[in-house]
Amino acid sequence: MLAGQKIVIIGGSSGIGLETAKRAASQGAELIIASRSRQKLEQAKAVIGDNAKVSTYTLDVTDEEQVQSFFAETGVFDHLVVSAAETGGGAFLTTPTSAARGLFENKFWGQYYAAKYGAPKLNPQGSITLFSGIVAFKSMSGSSVLGAVNAAVANLGQTLALELAPLRVNVVSPGIIDTPSRAGMAEAARSAFYSSTAAKLPVQRIGTAEDVAEAVLYLIHNGFVTGTVLHADGGHRLI
Ligand SMILES: NC(=O)c1ccc[n+]([C@@H]2O[C@H](COP(=O)([O-])OP(=O)(O)OC[C@H]3O[C@@H](n4cnc5c(N)ncnc54)[C@H](OP(=O)(O)O)[C@@H]3O)[C@@H](O)[C@H]2O)c1
Fold this sequence. Notes:
- By secondary structure, the protein is an alpha/beta fold.
- 43% of the residues lie in helices and 20% in strands.
- The chain has a single domain (6-238), classed as NAD(P)-binding Rossmann-like Domain (Rossmann fold).
- The protein is built from 7 helices and 9 strands; from the N terminus they run βαβαβαβαβαββαβαβ.
- Helix 6 (187-200) links the parallel strand 7 (177-178) and strand 8.
- NADP nicotinamide-adenine-dinucleotide phosphate (NAP) binds at residues 10-11, 13-17, 35-37, 40, 59-62, 83-87, 106-107, 110, 131, 133-134, 174, 176-177, 179-181.
- This is 3-oxoacyl-[acyl-carrier-protein] reductase FabG.
């Protein structure tokens, strides 16, 4: 149970972050959820439920000064989860360099700032959970930059587990998960992608936000686990 624990979830207004927030709230945690869109945050707060202790904060995690101001206001807390990211792909030779840099800006530097300015506010007995992803561990055409971003986050997490100890630092690597992150894809294309991926996976299905939220909750709860990359990918690395 998480009664008496305060958890900050940057990216807690959607997908895996929101599902983690729901589960943590049901275990009695006090939550601060942050993301860029006030509207998404208010909707998420309503979904998490009236009885939960949830505060919201509008934050662009790629803006270093905003991240500093945010942690100046959170006070001391117990666990930090950073699921905030915008991702994308494209052929290496034709993707504009600015778009490639944008992926690092969002998913790598956002998590870097969150860890850097969040760590001094964290209870040393607590934890940080960062997000990598399958394309760091299973190479896929069109994911050269995102794969590099995810590999960088995985490595950052392992070294921070040494430097920030006894604070625990872990990384989750989701496989293909059905979340609003692919809302921009046409419905037919998304559904075909999910079906063809599911057919190849050992578990014969794609993942849910609940699957990955369970992995995050495990990392929050288990005080003996640090410096690990937890793969919640349905066996995707093996095929
Ligand atoms: N879904 C998958 O298949 C999959 C696969 C591998 C890895 N992952 C990783 O898992 C993590 C969670 O993904 P998800 O599928 O749950 O995504 P999602 O449903 O799109 O949620 C992303 C969240 O991040 C927030 N966000 C995005 N950019 C932000 C920024 N600059 N500052 C603050 N908040 C920001 C979004 O809210 P606002 O729009 O309000 O900012 C939203 O709350 C990500 O790191 C993703 O790369 C996902």
